[in-house]
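Progress narrative, Year 2. Work on ATPase AAA from Brachybacterium muris UCD-AY4 advanced from sequence curation to structure prediction during this period.
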Amino acid sequence: MTAFEIEELRFTPESVEETRNRLPRFSNWPVVYLLEDGRDIYVGETGSADRRMRQHLKSEQKRHLKEVRIVFDERFNGSACLDLESLLIRLLGGDGKFQVMNRNEGITNHDYYQRSEYNDTFKEIFEELRSRGYFERSIPEIENSDLFKLSPYKALNTEQGIAVLDIMEGLVEDLHHPDVRTLAAIQGDPGTGKTIVGIYLMKLMRDLADFDPTDEVEGDSMFSDLFVEGNREPFRDLRIGLVIPQKSLRQSISRVFRKVPALRDAQVLTPYDVADADEDFDVIVVDEAHRLTQRGAQAHGTLTKRYGEITRRLFDSDDHSINQLDWIRKRSRHTLLLLDTAQSVRPIDIEAEVFERVLAEAHERKRLYRLDTQMRVKGGKAYLEFARALISDDPPTSLPDLGDYEFELFDDLGEMHQRIRERDAEHGLARLVAGYAWKWRSKGKTGLHDIELDGVALDWNVSDVDWIASKSSLEEVGSIHTVQGYDLNYAGVIIGGDLRLDPETGRLVADRDNYFDAKGKADNKMRGQTTSDEDLLRYITNVYRVLLTRGMRGTFVYTHDPALHNRIKKLVRDRTSSRTK
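Result:
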């Protein structure tokens, strides 16, 4: 028998008064509550529902809400209520039925006594709320969605929180000085949460501009001191934008923003949008900044022409050394870059040397932040270091203890695909991904297949936008440009003939003839840059390191090159042998 109860009442002074007279716990007991009108929803926790409802009734921002649901439990304390509040906000944001009105600064992830026991109750509360129409999907379905993964309602870890707080405190000060221009950078390996930090900052800036003084700010929130009356004005008319170079990720984040009232009209932009905007920006956040491009032949000829036109207009010169980062800094007073130069995968991407100078500038100004904590891969930093070394000339000598994280090498592609299907049935978000080692022969419905190995015939991703969630994705293979920036539960990585191990030297080599991303190996004739075999090897190994770090629960590998396959197989065999001894 459940110990919790859910009380229903109208969001009116009369209903609040009647409930206070009927239920003593309404005035003096820790509870979690939901305010909604069928479209918008607000989740809160309080030690006095009576007092809090009367405060909310005075709020202009919540005046349109109509119904209240209050969760009572005799075992609740303040920590449990904060935890349940955070969980419901995150799940409501990821489900998408309601538009969540909460600020994101109060999301917590603190441990407390008997938390695991409360978690069981929270799941029961979720299911009861779901039966009453508050959720359309199960918890696993929500957690696998882009709405959840890219939501601003995240509990930041300590290093993420410190970076956000430092950046926001700097902005509070800098915005009072119109002539000040700043550059900040957040650097981190795959899975350290750079994108989440960027999204969180966008929401936090909007929350500061619009916060309701009648809303209590949690005293133990890292950002509570920001929410004071004097900080509203500088942020209220702030012109801000989030730049995402990749089309697929940009459209996914745009969909998420449309579900968040504070971000509904937030600008998710291309670098071209920033350059062509009618007005300059106060703040630009650039996610995946390592994918900004330099001058050269762009993805489409029209963009190549547009590139030159923008450069001439902004700098009165057709200087080929000017890149998209220069555009953004020209059009923005305060620029924040989120980057990992080891994820640059094409010659057209801005050179690593440019970002080295940028990082040095940010460090000199004490605006450089490093994210180290692995938030994606359950194998943690041990797996990340293993994956990085696996595709290098300094390979690991053994497979580390990865706990519950699954790493497996397959001799047969069909068997790996079947394992991916099985994991997808169990957990969802299991997909095949590969390097650009096969031509896109299926394009245009030719009837030809792209990847044919071990009697298996597979095609590249049909969709280049939101491919992971598309109906056909389980039977297709995703490329780097489709999956970079996204999380999977399981990734089946096909390492093709573009990457070989020289059996004589024991070193990795790039096979140019078996690499079919034309833009990935082209020379930049405009700037007189030649893509050498060494350059190509760096791009290809970067591609595979990105692919090898997409899987949160596990990574499966199939290698086309026999020598590389045997090198990895020895690691796996040695680990298996040591476990059975």
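The chain has 20 helices and 20 strands. The longest strand covers residues 551-559.
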